[in-house]
Amino acid sequence: MKKLIFLAFIALSLSSCKEKDYVTLEINLKGLEASDSIMVLYGNQFSKKISLDKNGIFKDTVKVPDASFYSLVIDEKRMIQTFLRNGYDLKIEADSKDITKTVTYSGKGAHNNTYLIERVNGVTEFIKNEDALFQSDSAVFYKGIQEFETKMTKLLENVKKPDTTLVRLEKNGLSGYVNSLKESYKVNHEMFTRFSKGKPSPKFFNYENYKGGKTSLDDLKGKFVYIDVWATWCKPCLEEIPALIGLEKEYRGKNITFVSISTDKKDDYNKWKAMVKEKGMEGVQLYFADDMDFMQSYNITSIPRFILIDPNGNIIDANAPRPTETEVIKKLFADSGVK
Questions:
Q1: DSSP reduced 3-state for 222
Q2: How far apart are CA 81 and CA 93, in angstroms?
Q3: Among residues 331, 299, 333, which one has the least CA distance to residue 316?
Q4: Which of 26, 198, 229, 318 fits 305 for a cystine, CB–CB 3.0-4.6 Å?
């Protein structure tokens, strides 16, 4: 009998030590609005809605497909980045009005997620000086990149008993990011020197105007010009159109002209005209007719690309914020003298 009890005890102990095959999440956010009742957990080809319970907490158990990075999202502006692995029992607290600065983690898996806060802060600080690095000569640039890489590597090394998958993902991510910076140095350096603020803008000549006739950049002098280089086949371009239309309406009658330049091939010419009409696109709608000079002059290799030019035809920002970056672009307009 004693032997049976002992064996039962051993079995119970083993089962209690068995790793859970799910994540327990408890997210307590202060200052929620009445409409903030659903949070969505996003991952690679994975998503799950988490509802607010009667105690005002987002609480659920989730079986994640892989140990990896996942985002907890309330809306486009409020997101919590996490690293999750089945077996974690994670509690998250933050002020919903400023999640980035107030988020804290506790419970199993907390130390890996607390590292993410420090990593995000480190990258954010670096990005603030990224433009200055690209403007620097190559020696200063590569020294700055090396210092950043060393700093971020030490940050990861300081995590006590980090998750091995997290370490692998972070090392690969850091290596990829650093390599992409190095590979883009030449193009970006030229961007910040050749196309720096105050330099004369490259010009386009006699582009077909949707409303009739031809239009050149010189025809638009006297006002600020906000240019959108796009195409009907470009999904990110299409995602900017509603915000661009709203921005153009808000600034209608002010000292700025909104110009959209379609880079569609000749086979899609009719598609361009139909889309302009269908979506009610305003401003100056132009078609480049395979004239690559303007795009090549600005080293445009991907779209959408936005450019802001002053009333004298000089560059303000050769890689201006997108319309969906609403507050940023409005600030640039205000600082530049758009009124």
A1: coil
A2: 13
A3: 333
A4: 229
| Of residues 241, 235, 232, 295, the one with CA closest to residue 268 | 232
State whether residue 282 is helix, strand or coil.
coil
How far apart, in whole angstroms, are the C-alpha atoms of residue 201 and residue 216? Answer: 12
Backbone angles phi, psi at 11, to 5 degrees: -60, -40
Whether the bond into 304 is cis, omega within 30 of 0: yes
Phi, psi of 306 (to 5 degrees): -115, 140
Query: Would you state the structure tokens that stand for residue 246, as one six-digit string?
Result: 């709203």
The pTM (predicted TM-score) of the whole model is: 0.65
- Residues 184-242 pLDDT 10s: 999 889 878 888 899 999 999 999 999 999 999 999 999 999 999 999 999 999 999 99
Which has the closest alpha carbon to 95: 145, 164, 36? Answer: 36
Q: Are 70 and 64 in contact (CB under 8 A)?
A: yes
